[in-house]
Design goal:
about 350 residues; alpha/beta; Isopropylmalate Dehydrogenase; 2 domains; 11-stranded mixed β-sheet; 13 helices; 11 strands
Length: about 350
Amino acid sequence: MTRIALDLCGGDLGFAPSLAGARMALKHDPNLALDLYGTAEAIGVAEQRSSFTDEQRQRVQLHTCECMVDMTDKPMQVLRNKAESSMAKAIDSLQNDQCQGMVSSGNTSALVTLGLQKLNTLAGVERPAICTSLPARQGRTWLLDMGANLEPTLEQMLVNARMGVAQCRLVEDIQHPRVGVMNVGTEGGKGTRLEWKLAELLQNEAGIEFSGFAEGADLFSGNFDLIVCDGFTGNVALKTAEGMSRYLKNELTEVLHRHWSARFFLVLTRRTLRRFREHMDPANYNGAALLGLGGLVVKSHGSSNANGVRHAIDYAAKLARLGCVDYLDSSLERPSHESVATS
């Protein structure tokens, strides 16, 4: 049985989507157990008989916490004043080996800070990187960092690339992932010194198939398996992609219901359109691992619906079963002479 801790509180939409997502995950995976951490209000709803079936309740443990981490809380404020919050207690359970992974839709900065304080990092990692995937023409494209480190050093970005490659091998079984560096153009003379130096290092890195610079459109082109960037760029790119996906879905729905001829077309292509919507739905790709921590932490989008939370839980359980943290740790073992000069 794989046990995952879930922080019920902290998301933009309250605890309801997290509870519903927990139900969906338990129904989908009979080998999943959940520890739910939340405020008295959230746990009170979870205790109601209608929240879980009798069978699901045998795989659920409820933990009442004093408070929750708000989206506006500063990391240091959380460390000082919210040690009893649902987010902190869920990470505590991971630190104490009471579970194999932890999921939260809450404040990203607080989650990274608590993770660093309680779980530390793997050898050779200064700060974790948030890694997620986006739909592409063929398969999907992995992207990191999504916001854990807004201004990384060259050494940190190189380590991120190594972790991303290991993630592709473990999760997708892509032994030689095509790696790109996010830039403002594909030509070698564009971008900043950081991108140039990182590209040079990746070209000479054993075990990495460097495929050149990537532009924003390459997130969906299928030309790269992994794209590396700083946390600021990655976070903006991800949220832009999610916003465009929702815009296209809404526009398509409106067009298809506007005229009777379009409705006839809708009937003929219903199954194809359903597959298209599922492929484009950000909820189906929700769940980003904080690679480099000494424990398995998965960040769910703050505005996730129940389906999104369910996918984040599924992803955490999958990574736990694959032994993600140990695999990354062994993949990052490097001789001391491979340190990077940042000058």
